Amino acid sequence: MWSDDKDGTGIGTPCLNFHATPVGGRLTLDGFSVHQAYTWWISDGTELQFWNPLVPKLLPQAVRFNIIHLKKTYNLCSNFNGLIASNWRVSPSLLKFWYLTAVEKALLYGAAVWGGALTEAQISKLHSIQRTFSLKLSRVYKTTPTNSLNILLGIPALLLVTKSLFIRFNIWKLDKFRGQNDPISLDFYRDINSISSDRKIIICADFTDYDYEVYNDESRIGDNVGFLVCIFERNLLLPIFCYKVNSFNSVFQAELAAVNFSVGWALERNVKIKVFSDSKSSIEAIRSPKVKSNFVLSVKDNRYNAKDLVSHVWVEAHAGNPGNELSDHFAKIASSCGADMSIPAPYSYVKRVCKEFLINEWNSYWQNSTTGKCTKEIRPSANRDLLISNKYVIYLLTNHGPFPAYLCRFKILNYPDCLCGEHGGVDHYLTSCMYTKDYHLLLPTGAARTR
User: Fold this and answer.
1) pLDDT above 90 covers what percent of the chain?
2) DSSP annotation string for 246-268
3) Is residue 23 included in any domain, yes or no?
4) Is 191 inside a domain boundary?
5) N or C end of the chain: smaller count of CB under 10 Å?
């Protein structure tokens, strides 16, 4: 809920029942009087003003849903403020983690859908919401630039996070991502409700009567990812199969591709094989009935067709097993010299691309911002792992603190000079003031810093 105060940061306690009136209208009912209008921001861009704590029953379901969502959001805000104001000494890193995992998720619920059509007013409100949390977390002056707070706390602007979520959803929805040269085929999720139970749950049985031993292993060295399949017949090593996949593929996918190749090899020759793998995740993925990835499900389909021919067991890595050690050695070679194999890009790759997009957009946004010049000289780039929560350090990094120059700027003092007669800014107290000489810092040689 947003009050109509000028700064747009007033937060009230939302109620689920209101009478709606046109913007600028007034509603007077017998039995009570209304003194304050509240505006709800709806995800489709609509703004509704309410003057009375009663909602008409004909209010659209989508609007009622958004009201409930906002109620939860501001409950989180109240809880956050309560923790900040308490004497529990909650760790700032824990508060930041809570904000990123709970508060931000609630604020941006559904952003993948509505994040591509934000108006300037809605963007401003997003900044205002985030600024409330940033000020509470850092406990600094309210005039501190929002961009500087985002950089020092390691929290990207909600607008940029919204854009990242919107782009990620569209990439995954469209099933194509345009890389530097060619479109990249993406994996996708299938509806598993229509799949029979015996195909969902694959039992990786172990049997002793088999014709061949097969060892699979995968490797990633830098951007090179590959896998290898070693096949033994009565302790005699047959020709080795080495394959290289794309750099955006994961080692998990490479291991499943090795399993799929082994199963296909057994089906083609109608022979029994025992597959040894040091990847528990691939075995669990084949066994799990909840997997939705089309790539994994295709591997499970082949595994189901060869259920009487293939036994799949786990072996401990680097435990002295000769076959596993040999496959591990050649897997490193396969990652750079193997035959090319195309596998759809996983969802994790889309998330990684959008994360890089977020950082690049944040850096560009920070470099082009007109505020936070003092902070920009010290922190020219963004880093999500950074967290400076000490308010006195933030005073120095932003030049928004109890300094004469700052206080004079906001008409709190009449003169901007220090007691020693020089301009009372941050640089003065850190480098030249006679009263703080025991704490002076040395400026870089030849630096010409003016503020």
Assistant:
1) 25
2) -TTS-HHHHHHHHHHHHHHHHHH
3) no
4) no
5) C
